[in-house]
Amino acid sequence: SEEQPPVADLPKVELHLHHEGAAPPALIRQLAHEKKIDLRGIFKPDGSYDFRDFTHFLSIYEAASSVLTGPEEFRRLTWAILEQSAENGVVYSETFLSPDFCGGGDVAAWRDYLAAIRDAADAAEAKLGITLRGIVTCVRHFGPDQAKRAARCAAETAGDWIVGFGMGGNEGVGKQGDFGWSFDCAREAGLRLTTHAGEFGGPDSVRDAVRLLGVERIGHGVRAIEDADLVHELADRGITLEVCPGSNVVLGLYPSFAAHPIARLRDAGVRVTVSTDDPPFFHTTMRREYEMLAKAFGWGAEDFADLNATALSAAFCDEDTRSRVA
Ligand code: ADE
Ligand code: ZN
């Protein structure tokens, strides 16, 4: 049982990871202890994060993030995340960074957080051989005005490290189109675009993401499977889905990996990739995602090599970085 199937050892490209959502519970507990903040309510007796459903998950996520009070905390967090990812064979990763949790949307404060994050990422690249890039992310349930502040932070720091702009949060609140100003602002700054859609929203949310926001990637997107025309449209347009099967199973979208639509979407010609979303929350790692997919669908080394090639080609980094990683 100690022996891993060979697919889990492959070098991996991960496109969908939330920085705060990747925080090891031990780090959050340690920071809470240092700051004398009482966070006992967010942990189960076994030390893992405790939540009932998606909206409760979002509130536990925000409570955990409350101990990440400054750039130094984000430096420690970044190092911890990259250590974990490197252990799981990840060689290139894109992480969602929210100015909302990094200075509240103030551009000067955001720059300080970003400098600390990049410092840790540079150290991890040198010591662990993993490359990280950032996608600035607004939080949907914080509303369109707060999203504009995130977009301005993104535009001010757009470049070879902040490579994209996106949106997470509660898909049940508002509409994709409410955030058009922010996505336009980011696009004009040269950033590539992705948004969460088709996770807790249905096919219309995915259609709006593509048609109204003009994104080239979609976070999750899996509920497109409920609309055959939309599946064809995604395949035709070459939209890449950042699929997080373990996250979807824990949050109750599908009862098991075997019931997950990732294989059907792939067979229909949609560009699919695999990520963990918020690994400690969902008791997963990139290694485990690969193992579970191999078991559920009989995927082998060639299938995973294909998924990784898709992910690398959909990565938002520049060509130099892409060819260094490949
Ligand atoms: N933020 C962190 N994880 C998320 C998810 N799975 N969906 C939406 N927003 C999120
Ligand atoms: Zn996500």
UniProtKB/TrEMBL annotation:
It is an enzyme of class 3 (hydrolase). Its cofactor is Zn(2+). CDD domains: ADA. Belongs to the metallo-dependent hydrolases superfamily. Adenosine and AMP deaminases family. Keywords: Hydrolase, Metal-binding, Zinc. PANTHER family: ADENINE DEAMINASE. SUPFAM superfamilies: Metallo-dependent hydrolases. Its EC number is 3.5.4.4. The keyword Metal-binding applies. This is Adenosine deaminase. It comes from Ruegeria marisflavi. Residues 11-326 form the Adenosine deaminase domain. The keyword Metal-binding applies. GO terms for molecular function: hydrolase activity.
